[in-house]
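[job 4471] stage=fold_predict status=RUNNING
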Amino acid sequence: MFYRVRTRLADTPGALARLAQQCGDAGVNILALQIYPELGAVTDDLVVETPEHWTAAAVVDLVSGAGGDEVSVVPCATHDLVDQPTAWLHAAQEVLAEPDTLPAALTGLLGPRVSWSATEQVRATALTEIAERARSGVPSEPAPPAPASAARTDVVEYEVTERAVLAKIGVHVVGAARLLAVREDAVEAGLEVAPAWRRLGIGRQLLRQLCGLAVAQGGTELVMLAQPNEDGVVQVLAASGLRGRIRLTEEGLSVHVNLAGVRPIGQLLPR
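[job 4471] inference complete, writing structure tokens
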């Protein structure tokens, strides 16, 4: 029997290895694997082959017992072994030629799943736009090719609370910024963007809104600590347009952002 399995695992070393080990011990063969990273977790999409007597419920129990959360299992066939990026490219070609095939294309690509990963939501939005542009006949001339790292960021929503900002695509968190402590005029904070969503402007937006939160708390300086090898810190700070300094300490990169001229968060957000 072939099953397509979707589950969320903690983004910690060994989590996927434990799942693979338990599948192997049970005689379940993993034939295909797609990984969609988020913040603090990953969504894994697997195609597995089980012994003949296995049911979908048995697969759910196996994956849940290996630490999987939000597990969904559906029967599938060998065509599900197709490389997913390739399948999306073929679907784009079909939708471009015949826009009305969009619903069938999305159903074939995503299937009856409990949830879509952030990556799939971006892909689905892009495929929908291709269909809309094909229906309207736009563009009349080929658009210049996008960089290999390009991704849709206009589907990212920023959820703001008094002490935190979350960057979300649907229900998936792809970035987070939080105030940790207020010490006199300095506000300690943390900021993280999921690896697959870095260098797309999300960190810059989080930092700007985080600074607005810090000002609302009465801070004049934002202080963050990053890993010594985190090479994106300089780019994020420069792109944000904020003034700051970065120095290497025994604990890592100490980032100090001057909050002079930064408006409180309520004035930063669109009304």
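[job 4471] summary: The CA atoms of residues 118 and 171 lie 8 Å apart.
[job 4471] exit 0
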